[in-house]
Request: fold
Amino acid sequence: TGSNEGLPGCGSIDFTVAVVLPAGGSGERTGLLTPKQFCKFLNRPLISYTIQAFERVAWIENIVVVVAKDNLDLMVNIVQQFGHKKVTVVLGGSTRHRSIFKGLQAFQGRGDESPLTKPKVVIIHDAVRPFVEEDFLLKIAVAAREQGASGAIRPLVSTVIATTSEGYLDHSLERVKYRASEMPQGFMYDIIYQAYVQCSEADFEFGTECLHLALQYCGTNAKLIEGPSTLWKVTYKRDLFAAESIIKETLSQAACVVTGVCAESTQLAHALQKRLGALDMQVDIISTLLRSTGKFISKSWNFIHVTVSNSCLEDVQELVRTFEESGHAVLYPVVLILVQLDVSEQSSASERMAMLGAIRDVATEARRRNILLYGILLNHVQGAEKWQEAVENLSQITAALIKERNPALTGQLLWV
Amino acid sequence: TGSNEGLPGCGSIDFTVAVVLPAGGSGERTGLLTPKQFCKFLNRPLISYTIQAFERVAWIENIVVVVAKDNLDLMVNIVQQFGHKKVTVVLGGSTRHRSIFKGLQAFQGRGDESPLTKPKVVIIHDAVRPFVEEDFLLKIAVAAREQGASGAIRPLVSTVIATTSEGYLDHSLERVKYRASEMPQGFMYDIIYQAYVQCSEADFEFGTECLHLALQYCGTNAKLIEGPSTLWKVTYKRDLFAAESIIKETLSQAACVVTGVCAESTQLAHALQKRLGALDMQVDIISTLLRSTGKFISKSWNFIHVTVSNSCLEDVQELVRTFEESGHAVLYPVVLILVQLDVSEQSSASERMAMLGAIRDVATEARRRNILLYGILLNHVQGAEKWQEAVENLSQITAALIKERNPALTGQLLWV
Ligand SMILES: [Mg+2]
Ligand SMILES: [Mg+2]
Reply:
């Protein structure tokens, strides 16, 4: 990081940018006991996904996460467990505005702590909006640099109406003249910091809009930029469901088939590639993962290891070790499907039972490392039509395992 | 239906109520090609779930669904396939208001069609808000009867801001004074019908709020009632994900374990009941489903058939036939899990292979009837601790199959 001039993909960012992420909310609206930013899906709390969205942006230097005292240890553990590198955790205040101000103060070096470098621009975001993307952050940062302040807006979803004090319709607003104010918002650091220094106790206690403070105390009219619908705020339990489904769908978009050198495996891999392609999955085929030094491992969260007869468990153990060493499964569970093409037709039932036992043992170990291992045994049936049908079934089962990422089904040997 | 005075659960509804459901939208915001009201999850289009929400309310007599010409055949097929009994499908107009007016006209008996009986109160709702519940519909209907018009409102999720013509912040609205106008809305039929008769071409072309028309043309100030968050509108793809997850969660709340008369089955059933209970599932145990004449069948969408050794496939076939005859699987896929407790320890691998083949054949047939059949083979391991662990694994797998309802995994024999 540091100075980013001329780096590809950094757009026109030639100034320093940091993020403040207030994460003190209690989340009573989800209907869950845990504050929603700490609710987990795929074994990871929502706030870690949001942090990751900023951490992968090269021109963002620091992320200050502001939490309530009760959640301080939890947050420090999350940063450690998921390997977040740009995060500083600080204690919040009793309201949202007080927490944001505390976050901004982390760049001022109060007391004897060594301060973070004061950025030119600070982006303020919600911990519960995990799908913010680099291109939009770039727009917000550049507009904040140019105008002093900037904020995401969205068209209104519903008509907004004014009500009488007795609960009757008074009038409805003209929808085209208004927008919903969302996050992220961007500010010249000095502007938003001065706004907080000057603002009243009433602002700290009841205010919600940072944009409003910048306008009132610094005379800065924020530039408003329409953001994508993916900026939405995870508020209710249904939003957690939606977020989990979106992450699962994203993880399922690509798979890598590893074939070894056997001709039959390669043929099956190509048939799978075609059919998974029809299910909107992008499939790469390679002969071995072990010699590809991370190139394919980092591209996908799903691996299908195709072998002929039962020579493969050692390979699979080695694959599991490779994933472990790469740290690839820290952020998301990796799916590893072992497809065994049974060409002999005489392989006995007891051989198959032995294979099941072996897979189960490897799977139990792998699951502890966030690697989900499943086995599929494919009988080589005679006749083109029956074979087509078998491959179609294999594809359906493979796609289902990848999409659902269910830990309870690991170690099973399925049959096609 | 008809007159409902004094019926338990009908509250104070002593007047006739019908529903108009405009379903003409094109749904470009979901990012999908299909209009969102016709997008499917669990094999059923969204609009059928919404229709079902009204159809199960005893005091609602008619549901008029208004569709675009292109979707007329599709809609008629949906009504037939899912057995909707209270629905009349009519052709819509070129805008939302024109479509609602067409829906209202279905109660006027134009031309030579035999008209629907004109209701005292009409509820207007969106086809893409499937989770509306009877208690809220009751509030809306009663308030419409008393005040002439009523509408659901929700607190604003985001701050609403006014923008300058150059895209800068002008001012933000005081959140407490405003509400989001949602659906359903209720009207005295004569009031909303007269409002449409009198309204202008501009209203038909550009208007969105029925409440506004009732106010402008009939002087009726609608009573506004805060609704639950579940009234939200399915707008984006993530909302379809959320709706699917909510339905799946609801279907997974209860299961029924069928044991036969064997003591070991009954014992296992009680262990399962306890552990599934810890996963928030309400479990009933019965000895046989076949003689219970629909009582348990209608209560649950999940059945776990526990048997000892392989005597059970005929029972399962008979269960599948029972579900078929009951029509239970028309609206939702029914999960049927065959748990076989293997106490002999000598049952050979080839016997197990035979069982797999048999399950698969029954499952293929059952799946065509929306019945998802899975097999689980449980080895009776020695030692209390190992047995506890096995039962825990069984519960995890059972819960996963029930929660995911995945057709691709039917016919599999899983192993614990
Ligand atoms: Mg704000
Ligand atoms: Mg309306």
